[in-house]
Design a protein that fits this description.
472 residues; three-stranded antiparallel β-sheet; seven-stranded mixed β-sheet; 2 domains; 47% helix; Aspartate Aminotransferase, domain 2; single chain; 13% strand; binds pyridoxal-5'-phosphate; alpha/beta; Aspartate Aminotransferase, domain 1
Length: 472
């Protein structure tokens, strides 16, 4: 590849866009500048490679390809077949899964595909068998009515939101909470850790059809072998949503009991978080659920996004390289260095530390709400997000926590020394911020915010983002 290939590619793309709507070209350029300047600690974000980004900007976007590889409802899908098959093959190899479905447009879509694959397998199929028909269109009106009621009356047990679970795991504002009768398991108030005996007890009492594990704000490993045993003991289907930590599974940091793929009946993920691919989703499963999963379209998806599947194939190929395992290990080393640096300076962390990519600071220790802390950090050039802590007295809006994560900064090349410096910046801002007259208001000396901002920019100075891309 010529040394300037990436710069040339992005410059030319912007020139073409600028000729039609210059404000869009300007916004794209401004986004790169902003990302380059900010100390991005958002645990769910990353920086995809230039190859991944470029794989999305092309005529695959023009193509309808409903169906699956080799079985499409549209003609002329041979090239889409090529990239979808490649993405699925890379996913199977990377995660050691027997089946991969790479069409979901996002994490929420991947979860919907999984839920309905499970419902189809465990509720719809037996009903069809009992009525001795092959498909739902052949049911009588009465049988169809009964089946619809039964599909809408199933139980799910998942992790509670304030313990780090996700909205799509059966919470009322999300469709999953309207579909399922949901109950949740939390964490031990003393340790902040999942108490497997309590999960088992909840499962025995509630008898869910689906047991869900996975999180977006739990800083520890989950033992998926134990969770599978719990699911088996009550006849539940075990689903793991690894949206946040898929990169750590891909990079073989989570192995054995902590690798969800060998233990779960079905695994869902996003592709854009620690996995560092394009914005999208994916489902992995064994042969038992494969046919149902492949019916994601038309069940909950329309046409797939072939340009994104092309980018998934590129990113998954990257994740199969040996240096990705090194990246994944550095993500965790960095998170632990950040946690240590914060703890040494007196910050209170949920569970006292981390063994994955994220750290949850309980900012009540600084006398602040999550909202106040998030804004004060943002004023100081540090991008994080507020997050509830277990049994949060400030609820889900103001919260008492700040969630920080290392996948993005690790991609830029920052290491453990820089994480200690980052901990110093965070602690400085939080300890110098005071609570204002409401849960959203705070007082922070603008000169201090400015000073920290400059220190953050200096810290990033040695680690250029997209060093190969010069927009001129
Ligand atoms: C991010 C996330 C999702 C949703 O992903 P989107 O692509 O934003 O729809 C689902 N589940 C978990 C656990 C997540 O962290």
């Amino acid at each position: 590849m010529s040394p300037n290939a990436e710069s040339t590619a992005f410059r030319s793309a912007l020139e073409v866009i600028r000729a039609v709507e210059p404000r869009v070209a300007d916004a794209i350029g401004a986004e790169l500048a902003d990302q380059r300047e900010s100390l991005k600690l958002i645990a769910s974000e990353n920086y995809a490679s230039p190859a991944t980004l470029l794989a999305m900007g092309n005529w695959f976007s023009d193509k309808y390809a409903e169906g699956t590889v080799g079985r499409r409802f549209y003609a002329g899908c041979q090239n889409v077949d090529t990239v979808e098959a490649l993405a699925a093959e890379h996913a199977r190899e990377l995660f050691g899964a027997s089946h991969a479905y790479v069409q979901p447009h996002s994490g929420i879509d991947a979860n919907l595909v999984a839920f309905w694959a499970i419902l189809a397998d465990r509720v719809e199929s037996p009903a069809l068998k009992k009525a001795q028909v092959r498909q739902v269109n052949d049911l009588t009106e009465a049988d169809w009515f009964a089946l619809r009621r039964e599909l809408g009356n199933q139980r799910m047990l998942g992790m509670s939101l304030d313990a780090g679970g996700h909205l799509t795991h059966g919470f009322r504002p999300n469709i999953s909470g309207k579909m399922f009768d949901q109950r949740s398991y939390g964490t031990d108030p003393a340790t902040g850790l999942i108490d497997y005996d309590r999960v088992a007890e909840a499962a025995r009492e509630f008898k869910p059809l689906i047991l869900v594990a996975g999180y977006s704000a739990y800083p520890r490993k989950v033992n998926f072998r134990i969770m599978r045993e719990i699911a088996d003991s009550v006849g539940a289907t075990f689903m793991v949503d690894m949206a946040h930590f898929a990169g750590l599974v891909a990079g073989k940091v989570f192995t054995g009991d902590f690798d969800p793929v060998p233990h779960a009946h079905i695994v869902t993920t996003t592709t854009h978080k620690s996995l560092r691919g394009p914005r999208g989703g994916m489902v992995l499963c064994g042969p038992e659920l494969a046919d149902q999963v492949d019916r994601g379209c038309p069940m909950v998806l329309g046409g797939p996004l072939p340009h994104v599947m092309a980018a998934k194939a590129v990113a998954l190929a990257e994740a199969r390289r040996p240096d990705f395992a090194d990246y994944a290990q550095r993500i965790v080393d960095n998170a632990q260095a950040l946690a240590d640096g914060l703890t040494r300076r007196g910050a209170k962390l949920v569970t006292g530390g981390t063994d994955n990519h994220l750290v949850l600071i309980d900012v009540s220790g600084y006398g602040l709400t999550g909202r106040q802390a998030e804004q004060a950090l943002l004023d100081s050039g540090i991008v994080t997000n507020r997050n509830a802590v277990p049994q949060d007295p400030n609820g889900a809006w103001y919260t008492s926590g700040i969630r920080i994560g290392t996948p993005a900064l690790t991609t830029r090349g920052l290491g453990t020394a820089e994480m200690d410096a980052t901990a110093e910046l965070i602690h400085t801002v939080l300890s110098q911020t005071t609570s204002g007259e409401s849960k959203a208001k705070y007082v922070l000396d603008p000169a201090l915010a400015d000073k920290v901002s400059k220190q953050a920019t200096d810290l990033l100075g040695n680690f250029p983002l997209y060093p190969s891309v010069d927009l001129g």
